[in-house]
Amino acid sequence: MLVVAVFVLLYGPAVSKVSNVDATHMKSTFQDAPAQMTSRRLDLVGTPPQGMRAEPSSTEALLLGKDMGMRAHTQRDTETPHVPSRIFYINLGKSTDRRAHMEMALSGFPGHVERVPAVSASEVNRPPFSNYMRVNGLDSHLGSKTKAVQAKTASCWLSHVLLWERLQSELEPQDTALVMEDDVKFPENWTRALPETMRDAPDGWDALKVCGWGHYRQADVVDDNWAVPRWPFYEDGRMLYAGSCGYIVSGSGLPRLLKRVLGQEIKDIDVAMMLPEEGTVATTGLAIYEQRPGRRLLSTGGFGSTIREWGEQYSDYNSIDMGTTASGSVTVTKVVGIFFYVSGKLHSVDRDGRR
């Protein structure tokens, strides 16, 4: 009876079930939710509605991905990463409608949920943010953009990077956290799918993108669920690996993610997180994977972009230095100018990615 009593005291409190969150199922997975953490000023980028979903993978694509060494690499950390019990969503102070959306959707999550205040565009040239602007500088291809787009792009980049720097000191190597922007759409069963997502992830990962839009490239395929997000960002009339609306980071992988992104000029954060065109885990030191269209844990949509106006060009990465690789070489990729509309009204895409 004593054992039963102790068990009830430790695990008995019920977790209310709310819209979009299956808290009852997740209670056993997220028992050890950490104490409330202090916030720090960070930002978000609004991403377009989830884009084109590609066709199912073939055996040939699976073998190709394995042959390229995308999946098979040594587990670098002795501890198996935990299922995330901490969620951090990035939200601008003025975006009260987005905050209400996220708080409603996550109110029943049985772990730690924290709003991370966003760096605003008006703050990027003030200390301490101006230090990053001075050291990293803006990507040259943002030069053709308006001052407003430049500042908003930088504020988004800063928001994600500053959160990573904070979590680097808070997470143990085996700990994980789910980072979101504030326009995420939550399937009803997403909490049930989260542990499965972790189980299916490639070994030794540093970051897992579980929300985004756009296509994938056959040569980047790891297996039926995952691909390696690599440049070019636009190919054969399609955008690939776009969005940073949701991703999982591990305590052990954050230093490698930071090294990768801080080694580049400031640009769209989803672009900065990608590997070079010929990059691999071995040459870049970063094991980042993205769920393939149709397999994504979360989706995005319902809100417009906080960076660009409707119909404004996304970027002009015609030739961009994607940073120095682990081997010391510099990879340069070329991509034609990309034009897309941030409202899903101009591009009607169904769940299978067909226009």
Summarize this structure briefly.
Residues 1-16 form the signal peptide. Residues 87-202 form the Glycosyl transferase family domain. The chain has 355 residues and is α/β, with parallel strands linked by helices.
Describe the protein:
The protein has 355 residues and is an alpha/beta fold. It starts with a helix and ends in a 21-residue tail after the last strand. The relative contact order is 0.19. It is globular, with a radius of gyration of 20 Å. It contains ten helices and 13 strands. The chain has one domain.
How would a textbook summarize the main sheet? 7 strands, mixed
* Domain module count: 1
| Rg on CA atoms, Å | 20 Å
Task: Please tell me what the overall shape is.
Answer: globular
Helix amount: 25-40%
Q: Spell the H/E element sequence.
A: HHHEHEHHEEHEEEEEHHHEEEE
> Low-confidence stretches at least 5 residues in length (pLDDT < 50)?
1-78, 317-355
β-strand amount: 15-25%
Q: Enumerate how many helices there are, as a single number.
A: 10
Kindly report the average pLDDT value.
Answer: 73
- SS-based class: alpha/beta
Q: Order of strands in the sheet with the most strands?
A: 2-1-3-9-5-10-6
InterPro entries: Glyco_trans_25 (IPR002654)
Pfam families: Glyco_transf_25 (PF01755)
Signal peptide: 1-16
Keywords: Signal
